[in-house]
Amino acid sequence: MIDIDKRKRVMQRSIRLSHCICDPKKACPCDLFRERDVCLCAGETLETPTGPVRLTHLVEKAGCASKIDQASLKRILAGLPEIADPKVLVGSAAGDDAGVYLLDGDVALVQTVDVFSPSVDDPYTFGQIAAANSLSDVYAMGGRPITALSIIGFPVREVPDHVMHDMLRGGIDKMAEAGVPVVGGHSIKDSEIKAGFAVTGLINKNHILTNAGARPGDLLVLTKPLGTGVLAFAEQIGRAPAGAAETIAASMSALNREASELALEVGAHACTDVTGFGLAGHLAEMARSSGVDVEVVWDDLPVFDGLLACLADGVVPGGIERNRESSRDAVHPADGVTEAMLDVIFDPQTSGGLLLAVAGKDAETLVARLRRGASPHAAVVGRVAGKGTGRVVVRTTGRRTMPAPSESPSRKEEPAVAAQSRNAPNAKAGVWNIGATAPEPCCAPAGADEPCCAPAGGEPCCAEPAASDACCAEPAHAATPAVGQAAGAAGIEQAFKAFMGKAGKPGALDAATKQALNIALSVLAKCEPCLKTHVRKARDMGFTQDEIDEAAWMAIAFGGSPVMMFYQETLKAMHV
């Protein structure tokens, strides 16, 4: 039951402050109050949502692509105080996968924390991946994880409670598989879902695997295929090959435990796990820290089925561009290596494999044992060329080539919703996706009961004219009557419709911008049918209510109080 007195007291305070006391970015009354008659600031609650949820559709960047890029991170961390404690064997200055702190004798602690947004749609699977990814940093150091703490960011009451429950259950189950109890955790209310774990492990101080031990003559071994970033992005936009989501989920949730144990057995010289910075970023850091230059053979890189086809079709997430920017000075492509081929090594991985520098005599044995066990795609992908400054040379033998778009393997049928979302404006940026084909603009959507500029039963308001005559032309030998002569009022109406169609098409201004203008001009003109139609159309295009309101307030700024009252009354009539 609503406590009206409490609501009035709280809302009056917000109104006097000109800011919602729950969310200072909003005014009072907020959209939620207007739409659903609920004031969260007054302690009122929404019904908890139920039903299935696609997690990757709730975030901007999936998986480890949500992390801060390597170049920005280095710039931000520069100048922070150095650690002087002699018991810190590996600290943040090393840029390694985890920190190592000496306890007593040869025993040291390994500590790490990792958090990111969903890389798959299923909450339980996402929890498993978050756990496997967090454990990987300890495995990359050669450590044995012993305890974990969960970390969750969650939009409570906006997403069903069972989603958070299943995420935690998946993480706890994966930790149990690794023999690691989850002893507690921390959660915050966040607008985007995030999950991860802080993991503590043990390690022998004499057997620490760092990223700084690669030696000339070593071979480079990668234990998991590349491509999780591209294929997760492809799944987000409905362009993933059939079965790709399931394949990458299985890989991302697989533990790197066995690979770590085998690396210790063969005496690997250096190790790191390949995650958000991509193979290029992590390998460049290993080479720089080790004081060597390395070579990678592009044709030998293990990749997921469908990855190259997606890249050939231009399905390239923004994380690749950020990693390219961060690692461009270190990466040197040899003849025949194209930018599209380099996308493979810049792709941000989520819970990727281990990258190992191993003595040449041991590499084949290691790969054979990995393939017989939990890493069937393990491969030698390059070598340490010699002493150097961290150069990563990428070569190709020509054995594998990028497919042309027309040669790409067939993709699963794209869902209608996904197809529409590619051609819809970006709701947050208010712009059309580059390369998308904008739909034919029209003032009234099909089936609208109140077309804004066409009489009932007439042609659609933005219909193309049957004739190609310009509205002011006087063709001497036209086959149809000239406008303003025999055509009379009908000709004028047709010419006006033609003009409206041309004016509404995207040109120097994109379709989303023109739709915002349509809303503003409808408000300024106080045309109720126009406003109702354009608000409906804006919502169909993906506009948020905040964006619609901003367009309207531009008109209100020019028209004053009468225009404001018109806008508010029209929205009320639309039950907004």
**What is the CATH fold-level name of the largest domain?**
60s Ribosomal Protein L30, Chain: A
CATH architecture tag of the largest domain: 2-Layer Sandwich
Low-confidence blocks of residues = 406-486
- Helix % is 25-40%
Per CATH, the superfamily of the largest domain is PurM-like, N-terminal domain
Q: What sort of overall outline do the alpha carbons produce when their principal axes are compared? A: globular
Question: Roughly what is the average pLDDT, rounded to an integer?
Answer: 81
Largest sheet: 7 strands, mixed
Blueprint of the fold:
Layout: H1 4-17, H2 31-36, H3 70-77, E1 88-90, E2 99-104, E3 107-116, H4 123-140, E4 144-154, H5 161-177, E5 182-189, E6 194-204, E7 219-222, H6 228-236, H7 244-252, H8 257-266, E8 270-273, H9 278-290, E9 292-297, H10 307-312, H11 318-327, E10 331-333, H12 339-346, E11 354-358, H13 360-372, E12 379-387, E13 392-395, H14 416-423, E14 425-426, E15 431-432, H15 488-504, H16 511-525, H17 528-540, H18 545-559, H19 561-573
Parallel strand pairs: 4-5, 9-13, 10-13
Antiparallel strand pairs: 1-2, 2-3, 3-6, 4-6, 7-11, 7-12, 8-11, 9-12, 14-15
Helix pairs in contact: 4-5, 4-8, 6-7, 8-13, 9-11, 16-17, 16-18, 18-19
